[in-house]
Design brief:
mainly beta; 4-stranded antiparallel sheet; Glycosyl_Hydrlase_43_Enz; carbohydrate metabolism; 5-stranded antiparallel sheet; Glyco_hydro_beta-prop_sf; disordered N terminus; Arabinanase/levansucrase/invertase
Length: 402
């Protein structure tokens, strides 16, 4: 047993200093240690989407340069997520949306589309929405038409040149009844959206593909784009269409193991143009997502079973929006028993040359069918243009204020 150490005498001036409480971050004080100064805010996984319902799936992520008419005092930018409300099919009668200025602080926009107000809907199984936009001003060049999945071409318009935009949502309902198109009644990505056609845009099964999981992809010609990723959207729009300045719009969809693409009319955004083309790659299940990087089209999709840990994401590549695509897929997203399982049905948020994969997953050991949450992680490419396997995390990604 050691003897007690003698109590040292402390000068009163030093004692007063030691007893003075340190300032806290809540008071706006400067961090006191190098460790604190080096800390970076992280999004965390799952993303802190406002409740009270925590379960969402099939997230489609975007960066829209502003949230409404150009006449508003400041043109705002926000990240947006449009997910499926993960619940029993009979409870899936609406879509919520979420916006954020930094990927950390999220605002809920409830019921941006209510399918019970759509006569042709079966009032159930509202799944996997996709949102795109186009300028209202008819004489605007279509090359200045930022979409949900493609950045504004360079050189882009200055804020004072921005026109108002029409926002369109493509959604599936009734477990394959059809894919409809709705338009924002406020010219804002916050909606609310209302059915445009009074009938499905895609009706029933096409070439074996259940009419679910729409994705709208806008392909810009190379002459209207910097070729390096650009800013102001979430996709890569460097195209290969020569001197043509008009982008082409493509609708991808399909469940039941079949994938189909069809061209959309870029002027109306509510009519099909051309024939359906089946582009089913090996192991395809559902959830198509196409992005373009440096002239290569990456066709990404979900594989495995959505209710278990075989669920993941693979991709193939091709020279055009309709292929032909490579025959050997590469799996880049899969679950981790300690972090999260059933990692799939994703979208990709592109900001310049940085890529973020937004997807849903389940908590480890949680087998409840509808317990799915939205997550985000970095997605990277190697020097040869291959997508590297995604490292799923609990931390998420760094905050990215706009």
């Amino acid at each position: 047993m050691h003897p007690p150490l003698p109590f040292p005498l402390i000068p009163l001036s030093l004692l007063s200093l030691l007893l003075t409480p340190l300032p806290t971050h809540a008071t706006g004080a400067i961090p006191q240690t190098p460790l604190e100064q080096d800390q970076v805010l992280k999004t965390g996984n799952p993303l802190p989407l406002p409740g009270p319902w925590p379960w969402y799936a099939d997230p489609e992520a975007h960066l829209f340069p502003h949230t409404g008419p150009a006449t508003q005092p400041e043109l705002q930018q926000n990240y947006w997520i449009y997910p499926t409300y993960s619940a029993a099919y009979e409870q899936q009668t609406f879509f919520d949306a979420f916006s954020s200025p930094d990927l950390i602080t999220w605002t809920k926009h409830p019921t941006v589309l209510n399918i019970t107000q759509i006569p042709w809907s079966t009032n159930r199984a509202a799944w996997a929405p996709s949102v795109a936009r186009r300028p209202i001003t008819a004489n605007k060049q279509r090359g200045n038409n930022p979409s949900a999945n493609t950045p504004r071409p360079a050189p882009g318009p200055t804020p004072e040149d921005e026109s108002e935009y029409e926002y369109y949502m493509y959604f599936s309902t009734g477990d394959g009844t059809g894919i409809g198109v709705a338009k924002s009644t406020t010219n804002s990505p916050a909606g609310p959206f209302a059915d445009v056609l009074g009938k499905p845009l895609v009706n029933g099964t096409v070439m074996g593909a259940e009419a679910i999981d729409a994705q709208v992809f806008v392909d810009y010609p190379s002459s209207q784009n910097s070729g390096g990723g650009g800013t102001g959207g979430d996709g890569d729009g460097d195209g290969d269409n020569g001197s043509d300045t008009t982008p082409r719009v493509w609708l991808y969809f399909g469940g039941w193991g079949h994938a189909v693409v069809v061209e959309l009319d870029a002027e109306s955004m509510t009519a099909l143009k051309g024939a359906f083309v089946e582009i089913t790659p090996p192991d395809y299940v559902e959830g198509p997502w196409v992005l373009k990087r440096r002239g290569v089209y990456y066709f990404m999709y979900s594989v495995g079973g959505w209710g278990d840990n075989s669920y993941g994401v693979s991709y193939v590549t091709g020279p055009s929006p309709t292929g032909p695509f490579s025959s050997t897929p590469t799996k880049i997203l899969q679950g981790n028993d300690k972090i999260g399982t059933s990692t799939a049905h994703h979208s990709v948020l592109t900001i310049g040359e940085e890529y973020y994969i937004v997807y849903h997953r389940r908590y480890p050991n949680d087998t409840a069918r509808d317990h799915r949450v939205v997550c985000i992680d970095r997605m990277e490419f190697d020097a040869q243009g291959n997508i590297l396997p995604v490292n799923i995390t609990l931390e998420g990604v760094d905050a990215r204020p706009l």
